[in-house]
Design goal:
This protein is 79% helix and 0% strand. The chain is mainly alpha-helical and 222 residues long. It has one domain. Helix 1 packs across helix 7 and helix 2 runs antiparallel to helix 3. The chain is globular.
């Protein structure tokens, strides 16, 4: 059984590596061109497969890790939501699958917040990570529902949503590489990539702001 688990861990790491390289390429390439789109697709598939493999492993004997399980779900949400955002170029309202995706993330975020509170009360090491990621997940999912509710007003923000979610997924791949690949695990390692990703997302949110319509149209044409 342990041999089978180890094989799946290697497969998980393999797709994680592909996702890391493809994600970096997607960030460096010109946004909207063919190479960027192909790199984005490779990144998305790699991260989904990577996360799906780790979900059952987190419940296997000697490998139980509820935190990594929830982070896997978080990563899947980021990738799927980031790709779903591209559909808003054509949609006139939010679809049920988008609301289900955001609602599921909100549910698991509440679980993380509860586990974070429990960890803090019982002085569990790094328990604050549950609180941090739970708060981020809750914020993003609630923001999703605000987006859906005001769709007619905010529909030009689909590109910002796409960039933000995909950047979040990429920072998750970086964190996984540092923690699992380099075997470095501390609070700074867990939150630093997210902070840098947040700065990058803020930059793009300004650059792709709805008021800069001309810039958005150029991105679309490219």
């Amino acid at each position: 059984m342990e041999t089978v688990i180890r094989i799946f861990i290697y497969i998980h790491a393999f797709f994680g590596g592909i996702g890391l390289v493809a994600g970096m390429a997607s960030i460096l390439l010109k946004k909207g061109n063919v190479l960027h789109q192909k790199a984005g697709k490779i990144f998305s598939v790699s991260m989904i497969v990577n996360s799906l493999i780790i979900l059952p492993i987190c419940w296997m004997p000697k490998h139980q890790n509820i935190f990594l399980f929830l982070i896997g779900i978080f990563t899947i949400y980021l990738v799927l939501s980031g790709n779903r955002a591209l559909n808003y170029r054509f949609q006139t309202n939010a679809e049920w699958i988008d609301k289900l995706l955001s609602g599921s993330m909100l549910f698991f975020s509440l679980i993380m917040l509860l586990l974070g509170a429990y960890s803090q009360i019982n002085n569990i090491v790094n328990g604050i990570l549950f609180t941090i990621f739970g708060a981020i997940g809750a914020y993003l999912s609630i923001k999703d529902f605000i987006f859906y509710k005001n769709f007619s007003v905010n529909n030009k923000k689909w590109l910002v949503k796409h960039a933000g979610m995909m950047t979040g997924a990429f920072t998750a791949s970086i964190t996984a590489f540092i923690v699992a690949g380099l075997n470095i695990s501390n609070l700074i390692v867990w939150i630093a990539p997210g902070i840098l990703g947040g700065i990058y997302t803020f930059y793009w949110s300004k650059k792709l702001s709805p008021k800069k319509k001309h810039q958005q149209e150029n991105v679309l044409r490219n």
